[in-house]
Design goal:
about 400 residues, alpha+beta, atp-gated p2x4 ion channel fold, 2 domains, seven-stranded mixed β-sheet, 10 helices, P2X purinoceptor
Length: about 400
């Protein structure tokens, strides 16, 4: 247990003692060289990283952006169910306009001529039956096509299922077309029109650059090396650039990201502020995650028959959604961040002094000698002192003064 006198001494020292810096010139090759190396490293950090790489002399602003898209392309299919059919942009782009995104249907399961009626439910482990007792009138399951009537009816020549009141015939989504129904979608093109604004600097621009004319726009296709500023992208090229296979992705669908980067140095000419495009697949698709892969949804087209019966064509659409993501920042010279970073850099030079003091006072062989030269103890002259502290010379001076 600490003596009460020690506590009083510590409190007295805390309240009635004051430290002031003392400059001591130490002629040591090791310490001097270490001091200059630390200062050189700080100088390199301030100039190289803060000012050159991070452009610490600039005021910055984040991008404000708007995006519109347009898809073009035609595909032809010939199947026993639909016959010979042409698919254009009004058929496969759903909805016609999205918010910074566009969905292109590449595969589908279609159920024609549905009407509201009584029919056998699609067979699975919860709907198959052998007699009416297996079915519950009024029951609606999570995955039901309609409301059960309580009857067990033939679905085909070998299976019986519970009868439902629903849109009949019910959808059979067990067999997905392979290859994709619209496999020619790989040649469709996507035009992306992107307008950006940096409000702090009043700077606006769009990705259709002033050097692009209408004739060029009608024929160009984006290519990272040969044509990096064309705003028209072939769907397969985007998927390939993300390291994916288009035909494989087209079967079950997926989500692609088109990233547009607008990092602009407004201290340079405005013509050098240009977009950079990158691509990646956003939905996680690998061999270890096989539950609910891809991207799909359902929609219907409604009509009335000649007899006035409400009918519809149900489509389960699989496809690729392209999300257009715009990001970036602009910088321009401003005196305030310049002065702040210069002041911060000068303050960092104090680190060299602190580091050298620690090594000199605690790790060198002559640390006690350096400590005597570093610190000088002075008593309050007005109160007088009974004891002298410090080096031998200082104690002699103290005694002589008294």
């Amino acid at each position: 247990m600490a003596a009460p006198g020690c506590c009083c001494e510590g409190l007295r020292g805390f309240l009635f003692e004051y430290d002031t810096p003392r400059i001591v010139l130490i002629r040591s090759r090791k310490v001097g060289l270490m001091n200059r190396l630390v200062q050189l490293a700080i100088l390199a950090y301030v100039i190289g990283w803060v000012f050159v790489w991070e452009k610490g002399y600039q005021e910055t602003d984040s991008v404000v952006s708007s995006v519109t898209t347009k898809v073009k392309g035609v595909a032809v299919t010939n199947t026993s169910k639909l016959g010979l059919r042409v698919w254009d942009v009004a058929d496969y782009v759903i909805p016609p306009q999205g918010e910074n995104a566009v969905f292109v249907m590449t595969n589908l399961i279609i159920t024609l001529n549905q009407t509201q009626d009584h029919c056998a439910e699609f067979p699975d482990k919860t709907t198959t039956c052998s007699h009416d007792d297996n079915c519950t009138a009024g029951y609606i399951g999570t995955h039901s096509s309609g409301v059960q009537t309580g009857k067990c009816v033939p679905y085909n020549s070998s299976i019986q299922t519970c009868e439902v009141f629903a849109w009949c015939p019910v959808e059979d989504d067990g067999i997905l077309p392979k290859p994709a129904f619209l496999k020619d979608a790989e040649n469709f093109t996507l035009l992306v029109k992107n307008n950006i604004w940096y409000p702090k600097f009043g700077f606006t621009k769009r990705n259709i650059l002033p050097t692009i004319n209408k004739t060029y726009l009608m024929s160009c296709k984006y290519h990272a090396q040969t044509d990096p500023f064309c705003p028209i992208f072939r769907l397969r090229d985007m998927v390939d650039a993300a390291g994916q296979d288009f035909q494989e992705m087209a079967v079950e669908g997926g989500v692609m990201g088109l990233q547009i980067n607008w990092d602009c140095d407004l201290d340079k000419p405005a013509s050098r502020c240009v977009p950079k495009y990158t691509f990646r697949r956003i939905d996680n698709k690998d061999s270890s995650h096989t539950v609910s892969p891809g991207y799909n949804f359902r929609f219907a087209k409604y009509y009335q028959t000649a007899e006035g019966v409400d009918s519809r064509t149900l489509i389960k659409a699989y496809g690729i959604r392209f999300d257009i993501m715009v990001f970036g920042k602009a910088g321009k010279f401003d005196i305030i961040p310049t002065m702040i970073n210069i002041g911060s850099g000068l303050a960092l030079f104090g680190v060299a002094t602190v580091l050298c003091d620690i090594i000199v006072l605690y790790f060198m062989k002559k640390k006690y000698y350096y400590r005597e030269k570093k610190y000088k103890y002075v008593e309050d002259f007005e109160l007088g002192a009974n004891e002298c502290y410090g080096s031998q010379e200082e104690r002699q001076e103290c005694g002589g003064d008294r």
